[in-house]
Amino acid sequence: MSQPNATLEDLSIILHEKQGCPICHYGRQAGRKYLDGVMYESVNDFGLRERLVQNMGFCAFHSQEMLTFPGAKLGAAIIEQAMLKEALRRIKATSSGRNSFFSRGSKSESFHAAPDRNTCPACLHEQASERRAIEELLAYWNDDWAGLLEKSGGMCFNHLALALHLAPKATAKSLKQMHERRWREIIAQLDEFIRKQDYRFRHEPISEEEAIASRRSIDILTGEPRGVIQAKLVT
Ligand SMILES: [Zn+2]
Ligand SMILES: [Zn+2]
User: Fold this and answer.
1) pTM
2) What is the distance in A from the centroid of ligand 2 to the CA of 26?
3) How far is the CA of 166 from the centre of ligand 1 (A)?
4) I need a labelling partner for 38 at 20 to 30 A (CA). Which of 68, 158, 205, 207 fits?
């Protein structure tokens, strides 16, 4: 089914190919594409470099991901050298002595080596993309999307909360009902799993669904795992 825009096209592919929150998957893809762009086109962009220096680079996850792009060696070296120089400057600007490390220096300068999800430029790009994906999905919401989303297992808690905040009443109602059905199903599977731990019922086999229900709950509550980097590290 062809879609009216690239965001919905990507979402449709994700919903057909992957289980779990499609908004999380979409965000990860967007973050990776953004990093790819930085490595190949923007590594010499002065404005971006300044921003990266101010924030001390990318978060731990995206810093590692940066190394997985084939041919990223030069870009990574340029970025990491600038960061390490900045780290050195910050350490040198700090007076030595007990307690001085955290009490001196400009307030805007952080001594955390890697930024978090709220300051990493790639994470911020992910979050903006995730919101856009939700908005597009809601704008074109119909029974086909509802069916696809239900089959994929639905959204994670945070993305559902954002979708409910942005959705018109009728769509919000359908989203709520779908997720309530799904989450109640997992709660029942966990009930069964817990029951079968009792010695009286231990002979009853645990189904595959019951065995992975804890993992499913975690994914719903914390978002799809960022996972082990699949591509081979560039050496
Ligand atoms: Zn999600
Ligand atoms: Zn990040």
Assistant:
1) 0.85
2) 14
3) 15
4) 158
Residue 93 lies in a domain: yes
- From the CA of 25, which ligand is nearest? 1
Q: How far apart, in Å, are the Cα atoms of 128 and each of 3, 23, 193, 194, 208?
A: 21, 11, 38, 39, 36
Is 80 exceeded by the pLDDT of residue 97?
Answer: no
Q: How many angstroms is it from 59 CA to the middle of ligand 2?
A: 4
Q: How many domains does the chain have?
A: 1
Confidence band for 49, pLDDT divided at 50, 70 and 90:
confident
Asked if residues 31 and 122 have their Cβ atoms less than 8 Å apart, the reply is yes
| Ligand that comes closest to the CA of residue 223 | 1
Q: Is the dihedral of CA 111, 115, 121, 127 positive or negative?
A: negative
Please indicate, yes or no, if residue 152 is contained in any of the structural domains: yes
Does 28 fall in a domain?
A: yes
Give the closest ligand to the alpha carbon of residue 160.
1
Rounded Cα distance, 57 and 74, in Å: 16
Query: Residue 102: which domain range?
Result: 6-169
What percent of the chain has pLDDT above 90? 60
Which residue carries 């992957």 as its tokens? 18
Q: Which ligand is nearest to the CA of 59?
A: 2
Ligand with smallest separation from the Cα of 163: 1
User: Is 71 domain-assigned?
Assistant: yes
